[in-house]
Amino acid sequence: MRLADWLAYQEQVHPKAIDLGLERVKAVADRLGLLPPQALTLTVAGTNGKGSSVTLAAGIYRAAGYKVGRYTSPHLLRYNERIAIDGVDASDEALCAAFTAIEAARGDVPLTYFEYGTLAALWLFRKSCCEVQVLEVGLGGRLDAVNIVDTDCALITNIGLDHTDWLGDDRDSISFEKAGIMRGGQPAIYVEPNPPPRLLAHAAEIGAPLLIRGRDFSELHGANQWFWRSEAQQYHALPAPGLAGAMQYANAAGVLAAVETLRERLPVPETAIRSALTNLRLRGRYERQGQVILDVAHNAEAAQVLAQNLSADPSAGKPCLVLGMLADKPVEAVCSALLPCVSSVIFVSLPGPRGLSASALAERAATVGMNGITAESAEQGFRLAKVQAAADASILVCGSFLTVAAVARLLDE
Fold it and tell me: Which domains does the chain have, with CATH numbers?
């Protein structure tokens, strides 16, 4: 089958789109001989910042000369983006070969779309003899398919109120789910200064040495350079991360902490760190294309960071906002964060069972004082924004990977 056929098929194999738990996916991984992994593993969880952290870590190890597998989700434009080896996205042929092997091994075990992808990544990394694999958790951590792998270092970026239907309705409960990627005796990194109590308790209970930003490592940054330090190591005058925004320094600080904890097993020269920071790229993270700003922010914490980035960007002004969101996201909190930063708003409809219609999105936004016009698609909304915005004004597209992807495709044409 072609890749598109495989992906359509995978959506039908399991009756649920999400079915958290490790028993099924681990059974298939064992049949495929994927566990334990041959590659040293860094697993990254958190509410925001996972994608940029995974990308930077993989970039550092690549620059150091290691063969690196990188697994992220969701993708922006092509499914192939999820799995990369040495910075090259997996080909259709490689993905189809992986899915064929998985299908032959699974028997009558029902797998979700995400579980197929996770197994495909592990299969391709083993087949390619990767020395290190950097894995992004999809949802939570404890029961996420990625967690079938016993990580050599767990990196948790932050804890926010997202996916509350699955993970719990407060930061403490959510932190316990994300702390599930930790392993006893293996280092764990937490990038926010104040970890929730259950995360601290879990690390202590299983004996995972926990390093916390602001206590065990720290960073200080200026306009174009920064430094990082821990008790054992210091880096001075590092180049700014290639992604915009102050939060990228915190993400990078967490990645450097992880790299340092693994140094005895995977030595990394400072030149590799500098190169990876400079070359860090990831689409849809405060991405500027002329007057257009693309950002996949879709929860309260990400929207607050986006608002800070806009305030710190003198060229952004107050942009025209093109906003499309999923129904299970905190629409009101996102709109509240962005309201002071934008000049006008175009609400757009998103497809699928989780997609909010433009009118429903506008109704929810209006409860926090955000008003605007509606469009039936992100593409139509963007075309309206180009007419509505002044010639030199910015256009901000955000709220969902789906919203950003639709406009990114227009810009790439």
Answer: 3-278 (3.40.1190.10), 287-412 (3.90.190.20)
Strand residues in 201-328 grouped as ranges (E): 210-212, 217-221, 225-230, 234-239, 287-289, 292-294, 320-323
Q: Which two tokens stand for residue 17?
A: 């789109």
Measured in degrees and rounded to the nearest 5, phi and psi for residue 215 equal -115, -50
Provide the pairing of β-strand 234-239 with 225-230: antiparallel
Q: What is the pairing mode between strands 287-289 and 292-294? A: antiparallel
Give per-10-residue mean pLDDT for the chain (413 aa).
97 87 97 97 96 98 98 97 98 98 97 97 98 95 96 95 70 93 98 94 98 97 91 96 93 98 97 98 95 95 94 92 96 97 96 94 98 97 90 91 97 91
288: β partners: 293
Q: Are strands 153-156 and 132-136 parallel, antiparallel or unpaired?
A: unpaired
Structure pTM? 0.95
